[in-house]
UniProtKB/TrEMBL annotation:
The active site is at H55. Belongs to the thioester dehydratase family. FabZ subfamily. It comes from the Bacteria. The keyword Transmembrane helix does not apply. It comes from Duganella sacchari. Keywords: Cytoplasm, Lipid A biosynthesis, Lipid biosynthesis, Lipid metabolism, Lyase. It is an enzyme of class 4 (lyase). It is found in: Cytoplasm. It holds the Pfam family FabA. The gene is fabZ. It catalyses: a (3R)-hydroxyacyl-[ACP] = a (2E)-enoyl-[ACP] + H2O. This is 3-hydroxyacyl-[acyl-carrier-protein] dehydratase FabZ.
Length: 162
């Protein structure tokens, strides 16, 4: 008999994998993941977000760069789970590239950004993902993200393959 385990992560577990903290921790909960394949996570967007003070006071909109960052944090969680490791205090995940970024609808206070990330490949230390962020079933943002995981002491060195 086979059972399908619904793998989730709460905020405490997320914080054990990501070094980000307020105001830049942008993943509130992982709904499900399958190592080596996909992850689905959420970011609850509230009017109390620091960035809404200036973006924009008259019409609050989550900055696109932060939606991309939220998807990258989700991707990093999937990579660490896939590798079966927890990063140490010297581990850093860096962007290597962002391709095909498209913003389809604004995200604002009260929205729940659902992030679906799929690993496309992992070669020579470069992870490539397809990432889609949606609100109420409507695509808000999509992109292909490329990241590498490095030791902070190696941070000044070029990424593998460059």
């Amino acid at each position: 008999m086979t059972t399908t385990e619904n793998k989730t992560m709460d905020i405490c577990e997320i914080k054990s994998y990501l070094p980000h903290r307020y105001p830049l921790l942008l993943v509130d909960r992982v709904i499900s993941y399958e190592e080596g394949k996909t992850i689905t996570a959420i970011k609850n967007v509230t009017v109390n977000e620091e960035f809404f003070n200036g973006h924009f006071p008259h019409k609050p909109v989550m900055p696109g760069v932060l939606m991309i960052e939220a998807m990258a944090q989700t991707a990093a969680l999937l990579s660490f789970k896939t590798m079966g490791i927890k990063p140490d205090e010297n581990s850093v995940v860096y962007f290597v590239g962002i391709d095909g970024a498209r913003f389809k609808r604004p995200v604002g206070p009260g929205d729940q950004l659902k992030m679906d990330v799929e690993i496309l490949r992992n070669a020579r230390g470069i992870w490539k993902y397809k990432a889609v962020g949606s609100v109420d079933g409507q695509v808000a943002v999509e992109a292909e993200l490329m990241c590498t995981i490095r030791s902070a002491s190696d941070a000044s060195q070029p990424a593998a393959g460059q």
